[in-house]
Amino acid sequence: MILPTVLGFNLVFGKGKILHFGQEAFAIVAAYSVWVAVVRYQIPFGIGLGLGLGLVVLVALLLAWLSFRLEADGFGVMSIALHLVFLAVVLNWQSVTRGSLGIPKIPRWELFQSLEAYTLLCILVVIVWVVFILWLDRGKFGRNLSALAEHPWHAQSLGINRKRIHTIAFIIAALGALTSNVLLPPYIHILTPNDYGFPAMILFVMIVVSGGPGRVWGVIAATFILMFLKEGIRFVALPPDMIGPVRLMLFGIILFVAVWWRRDSIFPQERKI
Amino acid sequence: MPILSVSGLSFSIGDHQILKNISFDVDEGEVIGLIGPNGSGKTTLFNVLSGFLKPISGTVHLRGKDITRAIPSKRAQMGIGRVFQNFGIFREMTLEENVLVALESLSKDQRGELGDLKEVVKGTLEMAGLTQFAKQKAGSLSGGQMRLLEMSRTFKTGKDLFLLDEPTAGVSPKMTHQISDLITGLKKSGKTALVIEHDLPFIGKICDKVIVLDVGEIVLHGKPSEVQKSKELQEIYFGADPTT
Ligand SMILES: Nc1ncnc2c1ncn2[C@@H]1O[C@H](COP(=O)(O)OP(=O)(O)OP(=O)(O)O)[C@@H](O)[C@H]1O
Ligand SMILES: [Mg+2]
Fold it and tell me: Helix or strand or coil: residue B30?
């Protein structure tokens, strides 16, 4: 279920080589705008979804604009800041978001009340999304994005419009976050800010790095493996208070190994002119 | 009307003025050589012409249209093609993708004239003599092969004003011939080119006019035979007058 957002993130960070660490900013805006509207204000789902879509695209445009204004590293920091600002808003605007309590009793659609039916629906949506991403990746858009990532000047001198392509990439990342965060809360019936902290962002970076930045199938495989490890650790016979630290250590090791192994593709040599 | 008209162009970074009041016209079908010592601002001039650097003053007109403020991709779609000093190809992409990405980025009009893109890709690789490497990453090519790939790609993609930055640098004599044939072919088909070169005989062979740049200024502008004879060129370019 996190695949849409991860694949969207991979498009910007992996294939586009833009230092974007604000994927969870999209997620927070998407999840909260849709589910606060639907659960707390009884707004019909369709309208709530429309609201989420509008806001998430707005955030995408904001991030794209920032990425054009700032140097790569400055933008990286700024995108993290944006994520943390949204998280702070959600935690403190208690009258609307209920702060750290989260929003319980998130409903499923009538047709998909049972766990089986809902899971099936999610799988279908995810498959559609994967096909869409593969299509983009293999096509003109994917080539333009990699060309810009490898050498922005060379790409632009061929007639590729950098701002247009990057803006579209951010919007697709935003739509991925929207898809994931509309599907996930009804599955677990609750929306909690704990799921949107910085560790979630680190997990995405880890998945993309270990799967191979920009590689759709690699990232899909990495998503399954890392999610399996993350959840699987719970079933190892460990005292409950050990799980957290052990998980962190394990992830630290995976991240280290992945970055080491992929260092050439993550930090390609800068070439100018 | 000249295809390219540059007037009063200046560019600087901080206090360091790199281009000073550059003005010249290029007529359709001309091949113009741009020479000058290292660091005289030739590449910088190309970067201003392709829109990567913003001049502090002056204008650039393409076919009478003011493009001084146009973004690089817009200029490319208006017909400016560029060959970079350090290979403008994408090493992480295959040769086919390298050509395809360029074809796909053409304006609708330009693309319409070309027909089936797959065929054009094939034709371009044939022109470069690189068909057998079609599925390989371009990073695996030698420098000369990269240059041929870039040149063929740029020439095939329906542009009509070419900015070529040292197309023969680091290329064997045989390939230099191939490249000079490509440029002469261009000229025959009525296209226009600005060529930066350090190889004076090469310039003499292919160019109608030569512009000499020194510390950001145009110091000479004329026919290759005249410029080559001039004393100033000897001083600027070869450091000293060999007759004294
Ligand atoms: N980004 C930059 N920052 C500072 N100085 C620059 C920059 N780009 C170019 N210069 C300076 O501008 C001058 C002209 O550089 P340019 O690359 O245009 O020279 P060139 O004529 O192409 O030389 P070459 O024949 O060696 O390629 C040089 O003195 C260079 O140091
Ligand atoms: Mg140069």
Answer: coil
